[in-house]
Amino acid sequence: MKQTRTKKQKKVNYLEQLDLLNEKFIKRRVSFSKSEYQFILNRESFKDRLKGFLTMRYHRRKKLIKSGNVGFCYTFSLSISKYYNHEFRPSFVLFTPKKTLMCNEKFYLDVLANLYDFQKKKAKTLKESHLQAVLSEKDAEPRYFELPKKITKNELVYLQYVEVNTKHNQNLKFGMNPIIFNKNISDEVIYLPDFLKDIKE
Q1: From the CA atom positions of the chain, what is the Rg in Å?
Q2: Are 25 and 192 in contact (CB under 8 A)?
Q3: Pairing of the two strands 144-146 and 158-165
Q4: Rounded distance, CA 156 to CA 62, Å?
Q5: Do 159 and 145 form a contact (C-beta atoms < 8 A)?
Q6: Distances in Å between the alpha carbon of 38 and those of 16, 48, 73, 135?
Q7: Model confidence pLDDT, tens digit, residues 85-115
Q8: 128: phi > 0 → left, psi -120 to 50 → alpha, else beta; which?
């Protein structure tokens, strides 16, 4: 059923939101308790603490929380399948580390349109074949994939596979979502948990 808009939606100023979220996140994390760190890192139980223990990503994650910044990604694929009835669900996002672009929803939508066009064409190189495999979810193992410049208007944009922890993000939406990132520390990005999205002064 089509929904009719009674009021014109106010345009979101993501650049302004980003500065506010970053300022509050950096202030708040100074006083994180051990239990809050364990919650954000998905290490509340002994079983959770063992998951991925031997990977570099596991050990970089805490450093990512301690030294990362808030950014905006664009979530364009999110599993709602009954198969994923546990806490973690897969999602695909677009992400650029450039501040002015990560806050530009239209830029992400343009890249996404190019990506959908790319999916319909026959791959010409091994790298393009790999990207099409990732997009078709036949290969969701890579945590990030640098997109070809012809798709991204010559800008640096990543296709990221990001797990959604439903305890952290109960109502994650398609579109613009805040994340924690620092490409100098880790290729991983983490959705900003709900309790950090509206931090009281």
Answers
A1: 18
A2: yes
A3: antiparallel
A4: 25
A5: yes
A6: 30, 10, 24, 31
A7: 456 788 899 999 999 999 999 999 999 999 9
A8: alpha
Q: What is the DSSP string of 88-102?
A: EEEEEEEE-S-HHHH
Are residues 28 and 3 in contact, defined by beta-carbon separation less than 8 angstroms? Answer: no
Residue 107, C-beta contacts closer than 8 angstroms, at least 6 positions apart: 96, 101, 153, 155
- The whole-number pLDDT of residue 2 equals 40
**Distance of alpha carbon 37 from alpha carbon 120, whole angstroms:** 43
pLDDT at 198 over 80: no
User: Domain map of the chain by residue range?
Assistant: 14-196
Mean pLDDT over 181-191 rounds to 90
Name the token pair of 52. Answer: 């991925």
Read off the pLDDT of residues 30-43 as tens digits, 9 standing for 90 and up: 888 887 877 777 66
Tokens of 193: 């948990």
pLDDT averaged over every residue in the chain:
82
Q: Is 68 exposed, middle or buried (0-12, 13-18, 19+ CB in 10 A)?
A: buried
The pair of structure tokens assigned to 137 is 């979810």
